[in-house]
Amino acid sequence: MLGGCDRQTPGAAQPASTPTEQAAATSAATPPSGKIDIANRGAAIPDFTFTDPSGEKLRTLDLKGKPVLINLWATWCGPCVLEMPMLDTLAAKHKDALRVLTVSQDLDAAEKVTTFYAARKFVYLKPWLDPDNNLSFHYNTGVLPTTVLYDAKGREVWRIVGAYDWLGPRTDAMLAETIGAAGG
């Protein structure tokens, strides 16, 4: 599949570079390959509870009141790994208007995700875990990354299936309807 991971497969290690270099290379050299899907526009945010590696819980229904961008990803998914620094930057840019929630679909994820986050020193992203892949089954796209935008009332606006350049020029326009033109 273009721009997405469809299953966990062993392979060669990712090339060594910093997250900033990876994001810059992706942003400059790779056009967005994710597909925007509005077929579920208006659907309610699902009721799931996630934990972080320390055991803190987060229920999706408690996110209403502020738009939220939910990103399903995994440490073994190359396009997902490339998106993460961009999502951290996006979260920083729109911190007052948008919550960016990254939810790992790794099985036995706590140690993998903790190590991943520690190595990359994300400032605005928190390592939420979904080891049972509830969101993946709910969204039923079969592709990682999958990212879904919900408005402040918890209604789906759109989803992107596959990798996306979150620092590209289209992103602000795509978010403007939901978070406002200034966006934070």
Structure notes:
With 184 residues, the chain is α/β, with parallel strands linked by helices. The chain has a domain at 35-49 and 56-93 and 160-179. The protein has helices at residues 19-29, 78-93, 109-120, 134-139, 169-179; strands spanning 35-37, 49-51, 57-59, 68-73, 99-104, 128-129, 146-150, 156-161. A six-stranded mixed β-sheet has the order 1-8-7-4-5-6. A two-stranded antiparallel sheet has the order 2-3. β5 (99-104), α3 and β6 (128-129) form a beta-alpha-beta unit. The longest helix is centred in the middle third of the chain and has 16 residues, at 78-93. The chain is globular and about 35 Å long.
Task: Write the topology of this structure.
Blueprint: H1 19-29, E1 35-37, E2 49-51, E3 57-59, E4 68-73, H2 78-93, E5 99-104, H3 109-120, E6 128-129, H4 134-139, E7 146-150, E8 156-161, H5 169-179
Parallel strand pairs: 4-5, 5-6
Antiparallel strand pairs: 1-8, 2-3, 4-7, 7-8
Average pLDDT for all residues: 84
| Shape, per Cα inertia axes | globular
Q: Give Rg in angstroms.
A: 15 Å
Main β-sheet, in a few words? 6 strands, mixed
**How many E-type strands?**
8
Biggest sheet: strand arrangement? 1-8-7-4-5-6
Secondary structural class: alpha/beta
Key attributes of the depicted protein:
184 residues, alpha/beta, 6-stranded mixed sheet, globular
Put the structure in a nutshell.
With 184 residues, this protein is an alpha/beta fold.
